[in-house]
Amino acid sequence: MCGIFGFKGKGNIREIIKNGLKALEYRGYDSCGFFLNNDKFSFYDKKVGKGKIDELVLSIPLKIDEEVIVISHTRWATHGRISEENAHPHFDCKKEIAIVHNGTIENYQFLKKGLEKIGHKFISQTDTEVIPHLIEENFKKDKNIFFAVISALKKIEGSFAFLITKRGEDILIGAKKNLPLVIGFDGHNYYFSSDPIPITKYTNKVIFLQDDEIFYLGSKIKFYNFKKNIQIIKKFDELDMKEYEITKGSFDSYMIKEIYEQPEAIKRTLKYFLDETFERLLKQSIPERIVITGCGTSWHSGLIGEYMIEKLIVIPVEVEYASELRYKSPVVDRNTILIAISQSGETADTIGAMKKLKGKCRIFSICNVEKSSVVRESDFILLTKAGPEIGVASTKSFTSQILILYLFSLTYLFKKGRISKEKFNSKCNEILKLVEKMDFLLKNNNVEKIAEKLIYKTNALYLGRGINFPIALEGALKLKEISYIHAEGYPAAEMKHGPIALIDENMPVIFICVKDKLLKKIIINMEEVKTRKGFIISICDFISEEIKKLSDEIILIPHIENEYLKPFLTVIPLQLLAYYVANKKGIDVDKPRNLAKSVTVE
Ligand code: F6R
């Protein structure tokens, strides 16, 4: 939530800031702003609303010959409405100290009251604004901006990654706690960003700042641990640039491109697991119990993991929302594994839950971002290789996560001696067959036509059973988040305990109805909906007379025998359905209202 981007050096400043902010827009797009500083001139600008970066950077002159410092921001509003005064950068009373901040300052009200009492005037409703005022106050005593920032850090509670500069001075300071801050250096210019993506355009040399670290960039860059009050030495790492290549290609949105990338993402994730993870995982002892945690889509993949792990390796599994787990008193020990699932690796609640259980049980993570906070908090890492996911709605990372959960189950099944290595290999070959079927489905489906039927609806119900119940949840989440149609996912049989009251001819009901042992049961649930005149869309891997009779629309998907692989196919039409409905309603699927890709606040 919120992206920060900074630059120190010479170049086409307008382009650098525009590219930097655009690459971080997935973290928030309520407003944007920058502060440009050097010893001759300093100015700032802010714009409110989505898609304003092009307009914002017009105030940066096309040609600047001098070296400049720029700090910039793209906002996802937490404290204070979406408005110009709440857009970043924020300043002290004299408008000398400028800050861009990602995170939340939990004790800001207390600090603000104290500062107001001694005469500080606040312009915004944000938590961020206390930081420059605190620094201003400390500066009166410390007479040194760096010490003033350190003193401020000792007073603030919460999570932050920020960049600060002082009007007319060659100073750039940044610090982080719980939220990411990456520094790039191309030999001449420095780049600062919430993630490495915008930096990789210029250099592959980066430093990931760690928690409680601060840097000071004057004529040279220096690093300190502000908690321990010590200077530290940090070296630039070389990033694998291929991991960060981001374009929409021939697609008109990241979301649709990412949906179509799923077969490749599955192949990459499988290969990486077999090459890099399998042997290491075999060395990990089999736990007595597993707790899976995550948020949103990642929580849904946890539910599928529960189904796979309990049935295949017969270990009890609980799946907890990370936001709940972090404030519970979970009973765990060294025979428990916590599996934290996160695409971004920066979700505040997931990190909070991991921290809560740290030291009490083994912590595994399934994550798509190698250098993320979730990865750093883990004892064992299971990487997904979905590639950067930019569209707000999670798609290819979901199928990559459930692949890892399946491979995790197969590996422990092999370790337990319940399947041979040949059987393990043949199961992996089945995944390659699955990939072909996913590819076929993406190229041959009638989802776009069926989406027409949903655009004027206000509600939808998604029903599935067994391993396809979490797919129903996921389908409903996709529809609501990008098309703004209220949708709920339910276990199909649970419908008659309440939601059935909602069913009439205006209620679309999407059934996941595949050839498995619950087929007969789901057909009964379809009858119950049809009797009440519900409009049935069936996602089926075969068609029978009965299904034809009950369904108003059918989306046929390829059949796969292995029940654990069916969700990879049933989820695709639901992702596409949400995409086409939103697209036909004219919604920007990559940046739907109120959302941000990386939820770094509680
Ligand atoms: C839904 C979606 C969110 C995320 C959730 C967790 O499409 O993208 O529900 O799944 O915010 O994010 P990660 O997986 O990055 O921890």
Q: How would you characterize the overall build of this protein?
A:
The protein is of the alpha/beta class. It has three domains: 242 residues, Aminohydrolase, N-terminal nucleophile (Ntn) domain (Glutamine Phosphoribosylpyrophosphate, subunit 1, domain 1); 195 residues, 3-Layer(aba) Sandwich (Rossmann fold), CATH 3.40.50.10490; 143 residues, Rossmann fold, CATH 3.40.50.10490. The protein is built from 18 helices and 25 strands. The strands form four sheets. The protein has an eight-stranded antiparallel beta sheet. A seven-stranded antiparallel beta sheet has the order 5-6-7-8-12-13-14. The protein has a five-stranded parallel beta sheet with strand order 17-16-18-19-20, sandwiched between helices. The model has no long low-confidence stretch (mean pLDDT 95). It binds fructose -6-phosphate. Fructose -6-phosphate binds next to helix 8 and helix 15.
